[in-house]
Amino acid sequence: xxxxxxxxxxxxxxxxxxxxxxxxxxxxxxxxxxxxxxxxxxxxxxxxxxxxxxxxxxxxxxxxxxxxxxxxxxxxxxxxxxxxxxxxxxxxxxxxxxxxxxxxxxxxxxxxxxxxxxxxxxxxxxxxxxxxxxxxxxxxxxxxxxxxxxxxxxxxxxxxxxxxxxxxxxxxxxxxxxxxxxxxxxxxxxxxxxxxxxxxxxxxxxxxxxxxxxxxx
Length: 217
Ligand code: GAR
Description:
Elements: E1 4-10, H1 15-24, E2 31-38, H2 44-51, E3 56-58, H3 67-80, E4 85-88, H4 97-102, E5 107-111, H5 123-130, E6 134-141, E7 151-158, H6 165-188, E8 192-195, E9 198-201
Parallel strand pairs: 1-2, 1-4, 2-3, 4-5
Antiparallel strand pairs: 5-6, 6-7, 8-9
Helix pairs in contact: 1-6
The structure holds glycinamide ribonucleotide.
Residues 10, 12-16, 89-90, 110-112, 147, 173, 176 line the site of glycinamide ribonucleotide.
């Protein structure tokens, strides 16, 4: 099977990017990372990508008059690199409708909640305030509205009584690093297809585990 050419878009630390780069290095992984792009020249993740010998590109949103012009510049670079799948990994810019249409079903995002709950920013603080017992993370296809689109993979994560936003974020991040490579693999293997508002998965077995928090005695 030909390798799916993947670009990763970051704005900061890039730990999900690093997890994806590591995963595709596995011999049987049917995708390759051909480009890491950032809207911030000082994104820490860029150094990690360079150290892994992945081509990097900075396109600063501040250099453009409009969101559309910024997105068009990204499209040009992504198309030139032959990219077929774009992974947003802590990329903190909203994408224009034009960009979402041009790359329909070719852009995916990771978000630190069980969508459609807790879209947007300050997710961990908001989950703690709301007192939910189970948090999680989601990989989904991107649509123009923020944190919306057909869901590919989710992981559930229990919340501890003494959690802070930082401790909860760290526990969720561990699962983000597992489900993002899984979602890319499902797409690269042709096992995931967005249809309407949801994703149909081929060869998909229901996991046996159940998560109850607090656990029953
Ligand atoms: C991750 O927790 C990701 O889920 C979140 O930003 C963090 C980026 O971390 N994304 C969103 O909140 C998108 N709405 P990373 O740069 O270490 O991958």
